Amino acid sequence: MEQTLDSDLQFRLLNDFQRDFPLCPAPFAELASRLGVAEGVVIRGLEELRRSGKISRVGPVFAPKRIGASTLAAMAVPPEKLEIVAQAVNRFPEVNHNYEREHRYNLWFVVTAGSEGRLQAALGAIEQAAGYPILRLPLEQEFHIDLGFCMKPGEKKRPAAVRNFAPPRPLEELERRLVMALQEGLPFFIRPFSILASRVGCEEIEVLQRINRWCEEGIIKRFGVVVRHHELGYRANAMLVHNIPDAEVEAVGNALARAEGVTLCYRRPRVPPDWPYNLFCMIHGQAREEVELRIASLRAEVGIEAHPHEVLFSLTRFKQMGARYA
User: Fold this and answer.
1) CB 103 within 8 A of CB 75
2) 210, 253 in Cβ contact below 8 A?
3) Which residues, other chains included, contact 76 with Cβ-Cβ below 8 Å and sequence gap of 6+?
4) Of 2, 73, 269, 280, which has the fewest beta carbons less than 10 angstroms from its beta carbon?
């Protein structure tokens, strides 16, 4: 009798393997061993989760600006033109996230490219196609970037991994081909890394060695199941921004990075006079009221209630996909 993926197994695939995914020739067989099911059940289960939109892929989450260039960008668009402008922005493959948020700057998107020159060219082309100036907010300092979602009530988040910022390095040709192959996620077959190796033009062991090295170096932040938070019930997400004095921003950023409920925390430049904020963090929740309460308690816990801030809730998700570096 064929095994099927019940709700408990589905939960474990979604929750337990967002990181620490087995980097071995037969990873789905290893997952199956841990779960006590057949390998085919795991492969079919992951295919089902991808088809239903609960996961986007199984693969790497690359650290920002370690193998390419990226920036957060925003536009102030008249509400009646927002939809058409968002679609114009979406047409660029360099754009991987694009959201409407509650603010005068109401369209927020992430642009990623293989180099700084290509990034700037893409930004110029997007600005021309959209017809509105872009507010450019590149990453200056990372405090916590994870976007893993712990789905077990009461389980504590993992501590933020503190790493010094390292400038991007040029990719070798084989590495560039490997990044291109990994961007799409692992193929759901018995020997997925062997398939990637055939696409890249090298041996399976070399693919595994390079992925492991990238994980150790922090180029890959985590390797595993990449969930789509909206489809998992995290439909209320807010970007909390503060204007923190430069002398205090590192201490405040590290405190926010450790706090429960914060999935992203980083420093970006102020752009006076339109944008006075330099510290950003993201809070995801299942209801707006839950997120609002968490933000209020968070500001009190960290002692930043007196600092100017704004809360930008997401309204419409126009685009969400993995970054394209190559």
Assistant:
1) no
2) no
3) 104, 105, 106, 107, 132, 135
4) 2
Return left, alpha or beta for 201; rule: phi > 0 is left, psi -120 to 50 is alpha, else beta: left
Q: In angstroms, rounded to a whole number, what is the distance separating the alpha carbons of residues 33 and 143?
A: 35
What are the structure tokens assigned to 221, written together? Answer: 């932040």
Is the pTM higher than 0.70? The answer reads yes
**Each residue's pLDDT tens digit, 134-143:** 999 999 998 9
Q: Is 243 helix (H, G, I), strand (E, B) or coil?
A: coil
Q: Which of 243, 228, 226, 322 is nearest to 284 (CA)?
A: 228
Task: Indicate the Cα dihedral angle 212, 215, 217, 220, nearest 10°.
Answer: 130
CB of 41 closer than 8 Å to CB of 4: yes
Reported confidence tier of residue 23, pLDDT bands at 50, 70, 90 = very high
CA diameter of the chain: 67
- The pLDDT mean for the chain works out to 89
Peptide bond into 159 cis (omega under 30): no
